[in-house]
């Protein structure tokens, strides 16, 4: 439930489907941003959410970007507050206590792609097109785009995408690592299949993997190795490793929370 333009439902134990529905193009104005914050609040309060899949109810659009009409009516201080709200929604999603998958069909542009990049993984349909066209507005991708895109596709490819403002087709996006899985069918169906795979493993271990892999692009090797060792030790002492090891020895399926 929640805001009228961002709703969620339980698809299976531990898996929520989140739907954005703000015609005509899911512009990321305050209604969607507030809805995404409400989603994070609800999922964290529920305590049993392992994976959320974020989809669009609109044909041809995942999310077309920031709310330009809103931006045309505000002053500098309001623009700063709006940008902070968008950045904080993405940051909360990236750092959440659950995994997230963006199911991208159609256009994911500007803030829409920044939202998708804040998710743990991205699944795209064959007709998806992704881009960061902010330079055409005299702006830059300011909700994480200049930072997350190079970490996914590399420095040169990121500059190519942002400086040309071009739309990257789904097959190229998959080839360069901007999306993780490509499907000929509906992105949400493939994303739910992936969510089912993810939900069967230990969430604390998966979140530790995410933290460690993120550190690989941010820390020197020695510090990254130290963080990896700390994550591993923490899982053994306080995570679900005891159940995983016991299940392996007993040749049974582990009972992860």
Automatic annotation (TrEMBL):
Which residues, if any, are the signal sequence?
none
| UniProt keyword terms in alphabetical order | Lyase
Keyword Lyase tagged = yes
The keyword Lyase appears for this protein: yes
Q: Which reaction does it catalyse?
A: a (3S)-3-hydroxyacyl-CoA = a (2E)-enoyl-CoA + H2O; a 4-saturated-(3S)-3-hydroxyacyl-CoA = a (3E)-enoyl-CoA + H2O
InterPro entries the UniProt entry points to: ClpP/crotonase-like_dom_sf, Enoyl-CoA_hydra/iso, Enoyl-CoA_hydra_C
**Family, similarity comment:** Belongs to the enoyl-CoA hydratase/isomerase family.
Q: What is this protein called?
A: Enoyl-CoA hydratase/isomerase family protein
Q: Which organism is it from?
A: Nocardioides mangrovi
Q: Output the lineage of the source organism.
A: Bacteria, Bacillati, Actinomycetota, Actinomycetes, Propionibacteriales
């Amino acid at each position: 439930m929640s805001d009228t333009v961002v709703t969620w439902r339980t698809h299976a134990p531990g898996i929520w489907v989140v739907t954005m529905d703000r015609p005509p193009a899911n512009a990321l104005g305050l209604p969607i941003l507030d809805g995404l914050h409400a989603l994070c609040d609800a999922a964290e309060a529920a305590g049993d959410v392992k994976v959320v899949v974020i989809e669009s109810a609109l044909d041809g659009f995942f999310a077309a970007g920031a709310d330009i009409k809103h931006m045309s009516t505000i002053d500098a201080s309001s623009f700063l507050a709006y940008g902070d709200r968008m950045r904080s929604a993405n940051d909360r999603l990236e750092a959440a206590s659950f995994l997230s998958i963006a199911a991208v069909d159609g256009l994911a542009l500007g803030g829409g792609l920044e939202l998708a990049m804040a998710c743990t993984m991205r699944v795209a349909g064959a007709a998806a097109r992704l881009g960061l066209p902010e330079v055409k507005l005299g702006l830059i991708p300011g909700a994480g785009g200049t930072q997350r895109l190079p970490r996914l596709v590399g420095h040169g490819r990121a500059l190519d995408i942002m400086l040309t403002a071009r739309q990257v087709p789904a097959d190229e996006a998959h080839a360069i690592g901007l999306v993780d899985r490509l499907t000929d069918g509906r992105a949400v169906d493939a994303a739910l299949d992936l969510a089912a795979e993810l939900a069967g493993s230990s969430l604390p271990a998966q979140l530790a993997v995410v933290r460690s892999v993120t550190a690989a692009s941010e820390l020197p090797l020695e510090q990254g190795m130290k963080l990896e060792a700390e994550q591993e030790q923490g899982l053994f002492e306080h995570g679900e490793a005891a159940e995983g090891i016991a299940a392996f020895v007993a040749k049974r399926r582990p009972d992860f929370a």
